[in-house]
Structures are given as C-alpha cells and as structure tokens.
Design a protein that fits this description.
The protein has about 1000 residues and is mainly β. The protein contains 8 helices and 50 strands. It has a 22-stranded antiparallel beta barrel. A hairpin with a 4-residue loop joins strand 1 and strand 2. It is globular, with a radius of gyration of 32 Å.
C-alpha cells in the first residue's frame, strides 16, 4: 500500500529506523539498505511503476545477497549492484520481476498486477493448504471481503446465507448472546442447544471452545440468553482473513473424533509485503426491533376480560385490578414501545498497522466497540480486542515462523431478564411506570413495575487470549518439519445482582432480602502438534505426504455461589459480607486428548487426485477398553476438463468430479461420564455428605459418523460462470444417550451407546457468475441453496424407553408429536381434536400427528455491483420451514390478567359462532381442552421467510494531496426487510419472550495511509 503521510525526508528516516530495528544485520545508508559484503559495484537508480502510476513500497533485492531496498513514495529506488547480478522486484498484488544488470545507468521497471483465477485460490484445510481446484473435499469459504461489509459482533453471523449446508440461527437480539450453528443437519440425539452437534472450532491452528458459555455456570443468563453465550463473541470479525467450513469426510477425517459435526477454521489477518501502512476506521450503528406484535388495545382487552367473568357468572375479584376499578380502564400503553422500543446504538473504533517485505511481515490491530440495547437503559455490551501477528521466512526459504496473539476483553451489563416477555403480556391499561416525582409507580401494590428490573442487573466479564506459534523448517529437499504450539485461555465471570430496592417499598424489605449470585468458568487449552511433510515429484506424478502427532489438554474450573442477607447493599458484590453463603457448585475437570494423524495425497498429471487421511485418537472421556478410536477417509477427484475430449467443448473452461467416503467421530459427552460420580450433599452431623450422580459404565465407546459425498464442479465461458452440485449422505451410529434404567436402581438412566442410527442426506447447489466485467463497471452474483433431510433410521428398544415420546423411527430428530386440531365446534364453542384411538376422549394416546421443525431448505442470493469508486453489495437469505406460532404461548381469552395478540379477539360468542378461539371465560368447564390446543397442530404454521440480510454501499477514493492512500465511506444494513406470512415478531428464532434479531443501520469511514 502507498504511504503518503510523510515527506520524503521523513519517509526515509522512518524507513531507516524500521529496517534498523527489524533487520539489524543490515547497514543502513540514507537511501538504501546495503550488506557489508562488497565488490566492484555501482549505485543504480531507477523508478518502478505499474500501467497507471508509480509504485511506492516495492521490494527491490539483489538476488542471492542481503542487499535490498524499497521504493519511496514516488517509486524511486537506488541500490548498489555489480554487473551480472540479478535484481528482483516484488510487491503484494503484482507479479514479481527479475532483471539482470548489464551496466545500465538507470532502470525503469513496470510491474504487472496479478489477476486471480479460481485455479490460484488456496483454501485452508487445517493441517495443510490446497488449491481450490485441486481439492478432493467439500470446503466452503467466506473471506474478509464478505465479512467486513456486515455490521455484526460474531463471526458466525457472517456465514448466514453465504456457506452452503451451514444453517445459522441468531438466538437473540441482545448483543453478546448466542448463535446456533448446524452443518449438514443434526447428527446426534439430544437437545439442539445442548452443544452435542456443535462443530469443532480452530483459530489460527489452535482449538477453541465449542460449547456455549454460561450453560454450566449456574444459568445466570437463562432469562437473557437462554444461558447460551457464544464463545466466538471474543473474535472481532474485522480481524478475520477467512473462514473455511470443512464438511465431508475427506475434509474432516484428519480431525478424527472432532470432525463429525464439521470443522470451522478461522484465519486471522496477517501482514503483507508492502511499506508500513496505517488503517483507522470508525463506525456508528443504530438498531431497532424490526416488527412489533399487533396486540389488543385497551377497549378490546377490557371487553374480553369483562366477558370472561360474565360468561362464567362470577363476580370480578379483588385481584382483577385491570377491570375492578383499581386501574384506569381508559388508559393505554404500547408496552412494546416502552420496554423494547428504544434505539440501540453501537460505536466501533479500530487502529491498525501492517507491513513487511518478502522475508518478514507484521500486523497489529486494536478495536474498541460498544453496543447498547433496545431496553430503556444506556448500559450494554463492550468489547476491546487486539490482534498481533508476525511472520518470518529466511532468505533461503528453509525456515519460517508464524505467530499470532489474539486478545479480547468483553463486558455486558444488562437487566436480569429480557423485557420482551413483559412487553408482550402486560395489560394495555397497566399503570404508568413513574410517578410525577420520578420514582417508580407501584400503584398501591397492584403490580410489579417492569422498570424495577433495571434496579437489578446481570453482568458478565469475559477475557480471552489465543496464542499460536507455527515453526517450519526444511530438513532436506522437500522434507519439512513443522511444530504447531498453541494456548487458549477463556475466563467468564457472571453476576446477578438483586437488591431489595427493586421490590415494592411497601413490603418494607431491607438489605437482608438482597441477593447476589456469582459464577466463574475458566477454560485453559494447550496443544502441541509436531509434523513431518514430504513432497515427492517425478515426471507427472506428485505425492504430498503428512504425518503428525497431536496432544491437547483442557482444564476447566467452575464455581457458583449464592449470597443473601447483607447488612448493606454497598457490599452486595462482596460475597463475604453476606450472612448466608451457599456454594452451589465448585469443581475442576481435565480433558486430555492425544492423536496421531497422516495424509497422503497423490496426483497424476494435475488431473487425477487421490487423498487418503487417517487418524487414531485417544480421549480421557472413555474407559480403558475404549480410549482409542480410529478414523479415516478417502477422497478422489478427476479434472476431466483437462482430457482431450473436453477440447470439443470450448464453452467448458473447467470440469471436475469428486467423491469421498470416510468415518469421523465424536467424544462430545462431557468428562468423567464413564465413572461413578458424586456431588456434595447436605450436612449430616456437621459433616458433608455425598450423593451419587452417575453410574459406572466403562464400556461405552466413540460415536461414529460415516460420511459419503459425490460432487461436480463446473466452470463455463472462461470462468465467468461457476457451479457446484453436491450430494451427501451421513450416518451417525453408537449414539451416546441416557439409557433408561428401572427406578429401583436409584437412577433414571445410565450413559451408554445406543444402536440408534441417524441419517442426514441432502443436496447443495451453488452458482457464482461474473455478469458484467467492464473497466468501470462490474456485476457479480452468488447463489446457493441447501436441501437437508434428517431422519432416525433405527433405534432398537425405542418403544420400551421414555424417548419414544420424542423420536419416531423414519422421522427427523427435530419433530414434535401433536394433537390433530379439527377446528372450533360452532355449536359448543369448544376446540375439537381427532380421536385417533376412538375412545371418545382426548388423551396423550391421541398425540399422533407428526410435524418436522427443521428447515426443508435454506440459502442465499448475493449481488455485488461496482461502478468506478462506488460499490453496492446485498444479500437475500431465505428459509423454508414450519415452526410454533402465537397459539403456543398465549392462554384462552380472558383467563388471566395478561394481554393477548389482536387476532385473539376472534373468540366464540353467540354473535360470532365461526370464531377461531374458545369463548372468553374464567374457569371454563372445558378448560381441559386448552392444554391439547397448545400442543396441537393449531400451534404450528409456516415460518418461511425471505430476508434482505445485508446491504452495503461504499465509496472509495485516493487523496494524494492529503497523503491518503485510500479513504472509504460506507453505509451498511442488517436484517432490513423480511417477507413472511409468519405472524410472530420474527420467524428466525422462535422462542417466546426473547428479543429477536434487530434491524441495524451502520455508517462509517476507513482511512489507509
């Protein structure tokens, strides 16, 4: 990158200092860097440019020597050289050029920009890299170009709609929450949010936490985030160079037991060969709830409630404050606007510096971001992150060292509960929030003021450090040894503070009623991986082999305290100041993992490829008889477009068939599950007791997933149109589940391998096209769609166990059994359901209707349009699925002091016999029908949607007079527009009472100088 902010003299001084500190073996003169070795040399001057302008920062080196320099801001250079020596000119983004010096007085050199083609794209496959066109496995890739245009906090959000086969769901609109990711379906039985199907995360070669934070930490964030805090919130998306998703057996088997659910590889940004450049960027965002529910107004609500008591022939009781005169019947408040209607703001600032030459480079970036919420508070989420990387390569290219450090510090300060549920249930005539003097209004103790939640608070602090060093050395020609060492530490502290002042003063509570909760969860991961790589090339044959060893140790410590009865709220965060302290949990766990892995890749004539991977894993999570598991895969590919017959199809520029089959596994069952385990119980005679929590079973073994895939990749019209079609079939067996035990054992279940088999099969289609390529105008389109079918193939003994309530052979795992709703009887006003067993009653035996809640297909359509310095990028994301609707979460009309959606005004009465809902009634004689109703097909509806997920407009320019290489102004949007028939707040994540993903607008600027 060009550096214009210094004068020529200042530039040279900075250059001298930089090279003196970085390369002390050089002797630095005013204009160039010269080695102490000398012979009959002259000082050669010259200028380097491309087809349009001079090039500063070009690295100029005398081949086979240490003599080097770089061009100044005008592209000029001077260097000492002898006749017959070779000059090498190199710069990132340009083709290197070599010129033999033949006594010229000066040189004018023109470099040619590199034009990337698909064949030159290199993807990260974990332990190795491979050209995109030569890979035998299924790997999806999202680059910094697509990540940077999105106003997001979590890197996983950047994958939504951009990676085939990857289903991403935002679990909340509160910043710092959780993300659910599923790669090619649900492989293992269990709750979708339990972590059983999480992929394996690797950041710069270092394993990262896969399980959500908070779930095993006292569940203090259950009312905000479902106790699901994504560990990847620690990674600043703008620090990421690329994200690769490994999906099939060929790509994942080298990770063995950790690859069953796919692997997500995150590579952070590195330095590059150029002059030192600085980047400053700043952005501001505004977010709102994209859609409010249409709730009953006061008149509708009061009418419903009064009719409910009238129909029941009951007097209005003293606690019916909404209609007994305690509250104003003419008052109306839009509680959604009051409680979740604020505009959340976000600010981010970052400063970075990067540069280097062909031997070493560095990148340093610091970022600070703050986000508030739509709740009526100015508190929210903060993150400070820093990335530092350094890469070195020796002159003879035999030694290379790559190191990176990622640091992140996060804090979240919020109410103890998501106010969305209150906003969707408070009566519209509920009292005002504040009195005239500004104090909370308790309206004569007739309600719990929702603003009292703001006097309590939930807070968390998370610090994360990821250290990685990768050292490679060429022992012999084509024989390399490599050592990968990494360390990750993650510390989460959560507090839930509930002072007595959050309650009605009329209760006369004191600090003795205050409560304080504290949880800590610490993860430390260490990994070391020595490797050997040998490349053998002869004629048209090429063999690339790899063997390595991996050792990983993970130490986890967690504790959870409850403190009550404080002498003063001033000490509420000091647990030792409480008179009553309860230790809810306190424990340490250690997980050890050792593996040997190998890969042999053979190619012939650069068109036939065979890739063999194998891995033997040992895990501390299994008993002695089953500590080790074997995994492997075979991948083959044929680039048929290189065959002679393909010359008859000039419109076909590239064609490849590939296929893979293999076995991956999983040990994601928690630690020590095979042992008899105990927990500390109550005191007995002042001595602690032990309670058994799990039974000894050393015989269970690894879960395994057999993966098969066949795919074709085609490119047409000189790579203007590129397509991929893939079919896969994955079968997961030896499911580790809780096997049912007789109650006489004292346990409900024991962990063991079930013979159940789960199948995921599907199709993935992707198309990318360069629609228009002109000098000043271009238009590119990317489209992908994924079809996933999940089903339980077999489960011996299913009918004898309790899990028969959740699973059916031949059906998906994510099903629900429902009553078949048949409408409202216009004669009686009662709900009616299909009586499957014909006994004249509606019981659990009639729960026979099956609905699948997993997506049937999903995908994305992205367009990028550029005109001169203006760029427009937009992405539509779409999902086809069924899900729960509002009927699942609301009661029969009028039964309680709770507001209802406006659609529920369509309840039965003499004047409305063809209604949708039963009559407004308190204590209806047929209230028993309400339970089947909320568990019936009436609660399921189409939740498909098409969403304008992302929109980005930017304008870039150079300002030479201000010494600015690049100035970019941009406007970005997220979750801007949704087309759906779904009547709830948001069709993406169906969870009642939780804030949906927000609509966000962001604008900012970036300067590079």
């Amino acid at each position: 990158m060009k550096t214009h902010f210094l004068t020529k003299s200042g530039y040279r001084i900075a250059l001298v200092l930089s090279f003196t500190l970085t390369y002390p073996t050089y002797v630095v003169s005013k204009d160039n860097l010269i080695n102490l070795d000398y012979q009959d040399k002259i000082k050669l001057t010259g200028k380097v440019s491309d087809s349009t302008a001079e090039l500063p920062g070009v690295y100029v080196m005398v081949k086979d020597s240490n003599t080097a320099t770089i061009t100044d801001i005008d592209g000029n250079f001077s260097i000492e050289i002898a006749r017959g020596q070779t000059l090498v000119f190199s710069m990132m983004g340009y083709q290197s050029k070599q010129i033999v010096y033949t006594n010229q007085a000066s040189l004018k050199v023109e470099l040619v920009q590199e034009t990337s083609t698909l064949g030159e794209i290199v993807v990260n496959a974990g332990y190795y890299s491979v050209k995109d066109r030569e890979r035998t496995g299924s790997i999806s890739r999202v680059t910094a170009k697509d990540i940077e245009i999105q106003p997001i906090n979590n890197p996983l959000q950047a994958l939504q709609g951009r990676a085939p086969g990857v289903n991403i769901t935002d679990l909340t609109g509160v910043p710092g929450g959780g993300i659910d990711i599923e790669i090619r379906g649900q492989n293992f039985m269990g709750n979708k949010l339990s972590g059983r199907n999480n992929p394996f995360y690797v950041i710069d070669g270092v394993p990262f936490i896969s399980d959500a934070l908070g779930m095993n930490n006292g569940n203090l964030s259950a009312d905000l985030f479902l106790a699901n805090i994504s560990p990847l919130n620690a990674i600043n998306p703008n620090d990421i160079e690329s994200i690769e998703i490994l999906k099939d057996a060929d790509a994942t088997a080298i990770y063995g037991s950790r690859g069953a659910n796919g692997v997500v590889l995150i590579t952070t940004k590195k330095g590059h060969q150029s002059k030192t450049s600085f980047t400053v960027s700043s952005s501001t965002s505004f977010s709102k709830v994209p859609k409010f529910l249409d709730m009953m107004n006061t008149q509708q609500y009061i009418k419903m409630r009064e009719e409910a008591y009238s129909n029941a022939n009951r007097p209005i009781p003293a606690n019916a404050f909404d209609i007994n005169g305690a509250w104003d019947k003419n008052r109306y408040t839009n509680w959604q606007k009051e409680l979740i209607g604020d505009t959340a703001t976000g600010q981010e600032f970052s400063l970075g510096v990067r540069g280097g030459n062909e031997f070493s480079n560095f990148n340093i970036n610091y970022s600070h971001s703050e986000n508030t919420t739509v709740f009526p508070t100015d508190k929210g989420y903060k993150r400070n992150s820093a990335l530092m990387s350094y890469n070195y390569k020796s002159k003879d290219s035999r030694l290379s060292v790559n190191s990176s450090t990622t640091y992140s510090n996060q804090s979240n300060n919020l109410p103890t509960a998501d106010l969305t549920k209150k906003a969707l249930t408070l009566a519209p005539n509920a009292p005002a929030l504040y009195k005239e003097d500004g104090s909370l209004n308790w309206e004569n103790s007739t309600w719990f003021n929702p603003m009292a939640e703001l006097k309590s608070h939930y807070e968390n602090k998370t610090s994360t450090i990821i250290l990685n060093s990768n050292i490679s050395y060429e022992l012999l020609k084509n024989l390399h040894t490599k050592m990968n060492i990494g360390y990750t530490t993650n510390r989460l502290e959560e507090r839930r503070i509930m002072p007595h002042t959050m309650f009605n003063p009329a209760a006369n509570l004191t600090s003795e009623s205050s409560e304080s909760y504290l949880s800590n969860q610490n993860h430390n991961i260490f990994i070391i991986e020595p490797q050997l790589n040998y490349v053998l090339s002869k004629d048209r044959h090429l063999i690339n082999s790899l063997i390595g060893f991996s050792y990983q140790q993970t130490d986890t410590e967690a504790f959870n305290f409850t403190a009550k009865n404080f002498t003063s709220n001033a000490f509420i965060k000091n647990l030792s100041a409480a008179k009553t302290i309860t230790i809810n949990a306190n424990g340490k766990k250690q997980y050890k993992y050792a593996s040997i892995f190998t890969r042999i890749n053979y190619s012939f004539d650069s068109k036939y490829f065979i890739n063999l991977t194998a891995r033997r894993d040992g895990s501390s999570r299994f008993g002695n008889d089953y500590k080790f598991g074997d995994f492997g895969a075979l991948g083959i590919a044929w680039i048929f477009s290189k065959e002679d017959f393909a010359k008859n199809f000039p419109w076909l520029s590239f064609g490849k068939l590939r296929m893979s089959y293999g076995v991956t596994g999983s040990d994601n069952i928690g630690d020590y599950s095979y042992l008899d385990t105990y927990t500390v119980g109550a005191l007995y005679n002042d001595l602690p007791t032990l309670k058994p929590t799990a039974l000894f079973n050393p015989k269970y073994k690894w879960e395994k997933t057999k993966k098969f895939e066949v795919a074709t990749e085609l490119s047409f019209l000189k790579d203007r149109l590129n397509t991929t079609i893939a079919y896969y079939n994955n079968r997961s067996s030896d499911q580790l589940v809780g096997l049912t035990l007789p109650t006489t054992t004292g346990f409900n279940s024991i962990t063991g391998n079930s013979a159940a088999v789960v199948e995921n099969q599907g199709w993935e289609f992707s198309i990318s096209s360069q629609n228009i390529i002109k000098k000043n105008f271009s238009w590119n389109t990317n489209f992908n769609i994924s079809f996933v079918t999940n089903r339980l193939i077999s489960y011996p003994g299913l009918e004898e166990g309790t899990e028969s309530s959740f699973y059916i052979i031949g059906k998906p795992l994510n099903i629900v059994k429902l009553y078949k709703y048949e409408g409202l009887d216009p004669e009686t006003g009662n709900f009616t359901f299909k009586d499957y067993n014909g006994d004249g009653k509606i019981t659990s035996a009639d729960k026979k209707y099956i609905t699948n809640l997993s997506p049937k297909f999903f995908g994305g359509l992205q367009n990028t349009i550029s005109y001169k310095n203006i760029s427009l990028d937009f992405l539509f994301y779409f999902v086809k699925k069924d899900s729960y609707n509002l009927n699942r979460y609301y009661n029969t009309p009028g039964v309680a002091l709770l507001n209802l959606p406006a659609v529920m005004t369509d309840y039965y009465s003499d004047s409305n016999p063809n209604a949708t809902y039963m009559p407004a009634y308190v204590g209806h004689p047929n209230d028993y029908l309400a339970t089947p109703f909320i568990e019936s097909t009436a609660t399921i509806s189409d939740a498909s949607y098409i969403r304008l997920k992302n929109l980005a407009i930017s304008y870039s320019l150079k300002i030479p007079k201000l010494k600015i290489e690049s100035a970019r102004l941009y406007l970005q949007g997220q979750n801007l527009w949704t087309i759906t028939s779904y009547k709830g707040m948001d069709p993406e994540f169906i969870g009642f009472g939780y804030l949906p993903p927000l609509k966000t607008f962001s604008f900012g600027a970036q300067l590079i100088f």
